[in-house]
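The records we work with from here on pair a chain with its fold. The integers have meaning only within a learned vocabulary of local backbone shapes. A complete example follows; check for yourself that the lines match position by position.

:::
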Amino acid sequence: MGSETVVHGLQAYVSNNNPMSIIVIIPDSFGWQFTNTRRIADEFCEKTGATVYVPDFMNGFVLPTFSDDFCCTVHGEDITMTLFLTCQLPRVR
């Protein structure tokens, strides 16, 4: 549904093109390219008619997923994860 573009120097996923109404989704640790984040953006766009932006605020840094076997629905159904991610983050002092 949406497309990738550059907005004010940041890579971003943009769904729709309504200049009168916008929603900005700040992505979690899985990043702006994560399929489920984009599905949520498309769902918000479809339900509200607003332009939805998912910018890359983390400069391309994401947690490693080790696999693309994640599955999630955004239509109020059960969320199923076929792979559980365990990650050790470095300590910040």
Notes: The two ends are 42 Å apart (CA to CA). The helical segments are 35-48. Residues 3-55 form one domain. The chain has a mean pLDDT of 75.
